[in-house]
Backbone:
């Protein structure tokens, strides 16, 4: 990304002063110490596969999802994939989802042999519930809404559709642990909720990891068997499956990370509020992320929609501020989706937003003065821009 | 005396260097496909003599991703052995293909004389398993593959270090899959797998496929999976590499001590060793033999502190999971006989000569008291 910007501008870039991500922080150091201590215990016991720590992690993670059961797996992608498979979705089936998401959402659908059907998003970046029903065919088996950036989807409307058409509901909650809709936690509305523990997530481990939440005891048992080769016991295999276990060492890191989540979200919400207050004055050059009554946004990302986005991004980077775009190419226009028959113009809101969205740093370690500086820079960019802005 | 099966609790006299390396890694925060993974892959490629090594999430994924990236999928058949760990078959099913079993031979590996009879118009690949660390007959297998235009993916999960006439297993076929599971000689502290290949094209595809098919952060070439080797584990793997050859040599030396005893004529009525091929390097991930009154011997050994195991009592074709393919008991007599008679003795690198002698004594005591 930096390389591309460099090419575009032909001027050397100064060092990043305000990075987008800062994984090593003082709060996390304390948790890391605790985790390393636990790791030594694990090492002494040599309990490297599943075992007590994974069970403990699952027990403590479940309440964050509003579900009774949590099943820890190898990645957020696998959480989606295993959910689809356990719910019997496969070749010939269609799954409705959003195109403005990380690729894993559509990939999981494609990997089970089903077809992703993309529905346009609203201006809040989440799937537009009003457009879902017209995408339902007799092949539709499930809806997979994505709580993008940490903003919950309008789950009351989606649930009504799911009920009316007797569909499965899998919530892609990879970016949204701790978010709620009308007081209810994301991941607890659907048949399953799928969470990611990737290092960039609000609650993360030191590598790949994922969690599936569910209210259903049978489904939880099934998922635990699926993640471990389909083994009933050491010697007997009920069905062929594969290996998608959360590493025990990562579970230990997760256990220490869970107590930090509440503060992480509080700080991110505070940062978002500070941005909101400053940036809403810059309309119509940009719009701040939309939220709504009843939504508790956990701000995994803080995404504005900005005029002249590319120039703004370059300008910020030239001034030492690192930003990102989540994501510049919607999934339906990726090479990977070529066979599905989507063309530019298929999803107008998604496509319009992909040219305007910009993710500003929102991490919990961001200082008030840094946010002020970023807002000053954005204000300066639009004030000094040509009249076309 | 106690003779444990697992070596893990003894693995490092001093694990502190690993923990301090983990601390350094926490400062760098390159959690995903970081510099330690790159180093580990380089070591793996150079150790096996392969052009490329690609770290993935598990040994199962090493096999499944190889098949998928070689274009094996629904409608295809893959020929393999029924005496293996479930993951071999799981990987084929995961790719959407159907496993076709061929009986094993006297060395417990796939019987190459029976492979051609199992080939149909749907056969796409052969997946020999270097079972227990003993190389399969790769020259014959590659010749068959060539004759029929088939792919070869070697399940080398138990066989790092094993060689056929000096050439490393995993490098004969199109791809070789390895496991870094904690019970393996080159292991990490969790799940991990490795694919080796000499094909630039396959290596490139696998590197994309394991990481969501992403060409870069924003462009996706094809739908992929998330199956990355954790950087945390690569730190451990890089340490374990330093002692790998020593580990393998010790295991082989223990196995030779066992073989020398159990091949004596006094055991002829009770013990049958799998056929050994001296041209090949068997790394003895498992030390197995066929035992008369296996259940009795197992109980006797366990009662006397020797943690013997069975790999495995139920062959793949008779698993509940294989019901759909209607295999019958009696179809693979060699494998079925093995499953009823095989026993695995502890043979790991931290066992002392005394522990090996004690094990021999106890086997002797059971049969010749």
Residues:
């Amino acid at each position: 990304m930096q390389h591309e910007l460099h090419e575009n501008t032909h001027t050397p870039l100064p060092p990043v002063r305000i990075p987008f991500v800062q994984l090593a922080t003082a709060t996390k150091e304390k948790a890391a110490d605790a985790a390393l201590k636990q790791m030594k215990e694990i090492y002494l016991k040599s309990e490297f596969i599943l075992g007590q720590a994974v069970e403990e992690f699952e027990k403590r993670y479940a309440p964050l999802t509003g579900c009774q059961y949590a099943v820890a797996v190898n990645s957020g992608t696998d959480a989606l994939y295993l959910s689809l498979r356990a719910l019997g979705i496969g070749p010939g089936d269609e799954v409705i989802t959003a195109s403005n998401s990380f690729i894993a959402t559509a990939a999981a659908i494609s990997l089970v042999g089903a077809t992703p059907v993309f529905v346009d998003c609203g201006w809040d970046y989440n799937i537009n519930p009003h457009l879902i029903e017209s995408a339902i065919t007799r092949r539709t088996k499930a809806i997979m809404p994505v709580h993008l950036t940490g903003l919950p989807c309008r789950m009351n409307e989606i649930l009504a559709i799911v009920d009316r058409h007797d569909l499965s509901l899998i919530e892609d909650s990879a970016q949204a642990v701790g978010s709620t809709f009308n007081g209810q936690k994301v991941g607890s509305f659907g048949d399953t909720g799928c969470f990611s523990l990737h290092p960039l997530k609000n609650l993360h481990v030191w590598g790949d990891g994922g969690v599936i939440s569910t209210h259903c005891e049978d489904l939880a048992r099934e998922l635990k068997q699926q993640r471990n080769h389909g083994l009933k016991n050491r010697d007997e295999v009920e069905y062929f499956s594969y290996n998608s276990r959360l590493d025990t060492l990562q579970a230990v890191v997760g256990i220490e990370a869970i107590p930090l989540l509440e503060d992480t979200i509080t700080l991110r919400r505070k940062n978002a509020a500070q941005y909101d207050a400053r940036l809403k004055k810059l309309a119509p050059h940009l719009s701040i992320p939309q939220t709504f009554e009843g939504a508790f946004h956990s701000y995994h990302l803080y995404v504005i929609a900005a005029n002249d986005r590319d120039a703004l991004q370059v300008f910020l980077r030239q001034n030492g501020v690192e930003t990102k775009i989540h994501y510049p190419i919607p999934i339906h226009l990726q090479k990977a989706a070529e066979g599905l028959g989507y063309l530019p113009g298929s999803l107008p809101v998604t496509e319009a937003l992909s040219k305007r969205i910009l993710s500003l740093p929102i991490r919990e370690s961001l200082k008030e003065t840094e946010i002020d500086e970023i807002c000053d820079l954005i204000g300066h960019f639009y004030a000094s821009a040509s009249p076309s802005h | 005396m106690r003779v444990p099966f697992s070596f893990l609790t003894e693995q490092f006299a001093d694990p502190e260097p690993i923990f301090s390396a983990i601390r350094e890694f926490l400062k760098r925060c390159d959690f995903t496909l970081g510099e330690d993974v790159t180093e580990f892959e380089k070591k793996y490629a150079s150790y096996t003599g392969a052009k490329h090594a690609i770290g993935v999430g598990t040994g199962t994924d090493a096999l499944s991703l190889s098949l998928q990236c070689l274009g094996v999928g629904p409608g295809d058949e893959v020929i393999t052995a029924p005496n293996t760990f479930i993951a071999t078959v799981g990987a084929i099913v995961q790719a959407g293909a159907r496993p076709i079993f061929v009986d094993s031979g006297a060395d417990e590996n796939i019987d190459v004389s029976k492979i051609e009879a199992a080939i149909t118009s749907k056969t796409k690949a052969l997946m020999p398993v270097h079972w227990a660390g003993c190389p399969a007959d790769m020259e014959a297998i590659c010749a068959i593959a060539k004759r029929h235009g088939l792919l070869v993916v070697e399940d080398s999960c138990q066989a790092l270090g094993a060689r056929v006439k000096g050439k490393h297993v995993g490098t004969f076929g199109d791809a070789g899959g390895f496991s870094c599971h904690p019970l393996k000689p080159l292991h990490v502290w969790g799940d991990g797998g490795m694919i080796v290949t000499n094909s630039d094209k396959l290596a490139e595809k696998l590197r994309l496929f394991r990481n969501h098919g992403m060409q870069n952060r924003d462009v996706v070439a094809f739908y992929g999976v998330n199956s990355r080797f954790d950087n945390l584990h690569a730190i451990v793997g890089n340490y374990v590499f330093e002692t790998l050859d020593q580990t393998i040599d010790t295991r082989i030396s223990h196995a030779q001590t066992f073989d020398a005893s159990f091949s004596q004529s006094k055991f002829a009525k009770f013990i049958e060793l799998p056929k050994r091929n001296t041209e090949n390097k068997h790394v003895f991930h498992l030390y197995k033999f066929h035992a008369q009154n296996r259940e009795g011997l197992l109980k006797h050994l366990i009662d006397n502190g020797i943690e013997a195991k069975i790999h495995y009592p139920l062959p793949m074709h008779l698993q509940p999971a294989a019901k759909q393919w209607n295999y019958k008991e009696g179809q693979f007599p060699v494998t079925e006989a093995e499953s009823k008679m095989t026993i695995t003795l502890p043979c790991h690198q931290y066992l002392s000569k005394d522990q090996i002698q004690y094990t021999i004594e106890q086997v002797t005591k059971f049969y010749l008291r």
